[in-house]
Amino acid sequence: MSDSSFSFLWPRISARAARFAGVAAAASALALGAAGTASACNISEFTAAAECTGEQGVITVVDKDPSGVQATVSVYLKSGGAEKLIGSQDVKGTREGATLTFKEDWQPNATYRVHVKAGDQVDEDISPELTTPGKACATTPAPSKPAPSKPAPSKPAPSKPAPSTSAPASPTPAAPAPSNSPAPAGSSDNLAETGSSSNTPLFAGLAGALVVAGGGIVFALRKRGAAQR
Question: What is the C-alpha to C-alpha distance for residues 77 and 105, in angstroms, rounded to an integer?
Fold first, then answer.
C-alpha cells in the first residue's frame, strides 16, 4: 500500500478514535455522578416512630445513611399551633441503620415534627410528620396507700388527788352546857377540871365554906370534951 493510501485512511481512524474517547468519558462522568449521589446524605434515609419500651413511651429515629455523615435530629411536640422541643441528639448513620431514642410519655394521636440537619446536605423535616398511635403505653397504677387507722381513744387513768401538805383541821369540840347545880365534893371531874370556867368561883366559894364549917365543928367538939373532964 502506498503512502497515498495511508493518508486517505487516517482521517477516518482519527474520527472513530475520538468518538470512542468521548463515549468513554461520558460513561465515566455518569459513573462518578452516580457514586457521588449514592454517598450523599438524604432525608429519605431517616425514619421516625412512636413506640413503647415496657411502660415508658419513646420516639425512635433511624438513620440509614451509608456515608456516615453526622446529623443532628431534633424532635418537637406540636400542640395548638405551638411547638415544644422534646430533645436533640447527634447521630452518624450506617448502612444497617443507627437508632436514636427520645424518652417521651406521648399521648394518643399526638403530632411530632422531626427535623434533620446534616451539614450542607440536609436541613429539613421528616415527611410526613409523626402521629402517635391511638393507645398510650400501658401504665401500672401506683398502689394506693391505705388510710391510716385512727387508734381507739384510750380511757384516761383516774387522776389521784394530790396529797395535801396542810395538816387536817381538828374538829372543834362542842362546849359543854353550863350547869348551875354544884357537883359533889369528891367528884374527880371537878378536881381535874382546870381553866377559866364560869363555875370556878362558885366551887371556890363552896370549898371555903366547907373548910370554915369543918373547922368550927372540930373546935366545938374539942371545947365540949374539955368541959366534961
Answer: 11
Q: Say if residues 97 and 48 touch (Cβ distance below 8 Å).
A: no
Residue 200 in 3-state DSSP? helix
Instruction: Give the pLDDT confidence of 52-110 residue by residue, as tens digits.
Output: 998 899 999 999 999 999 999 999 999 988 999 999 999 999 999 999 999 999 999 99
Dist CA 75 CA 115 (whole Å): 7
Residues 6+ away with beta carbon under 8 Å from 137: 52, 54, 55, 56, 57, 105
> Residue 174: phi, psi to the nearest 5?
-70, 135
Locate 61 and state its grid cell. 429515629
Alpha helices in the chain (DSSP H): 3-39, 188-192, 200-228
